[in-house]
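Predict the 3D structure for this chain.
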Amino acid sequence: MRVAGISVSSLEPPVLLPRSSTSRKGLQQSHDWIDTTVTIPAAGGTIALLGEDAHDWDFKVQKALAHATSLGLVPIAFEPAAPADVLVVSSLFIDSPLMRRLRAAGLPVVASKVFQEARSGAVLAAKRWGVG
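Done. Predicted structure below.
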């Protein structure tokens, strides 16, 4: 039998070589989201929110802001260099200069969906960017 002018019987399976035991892991560290927690202040406290959509303001963030107000948290600007007590993001996958700075700082963030269940003084599941 011939396929594309080559005899199929003359085709040999490719030789698969095992990968060497040395990996690039030692040369390049892996980064990923790591599980952590954040405590919602029982009284007072600050919150910063970050979200993106086609209009640069996310509905999830608007809902989180309304919930934060009901908890007595004061919204401040989202600034990784001077973080709020609680940082809420609409998605961990936002690719913006602010989010890149936040990941570089290794600050914990709470997903807006998780924050919606928060009560004053509660400990919430959060994520922190770090070496894995």
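The longest strand covers residues 31-39.
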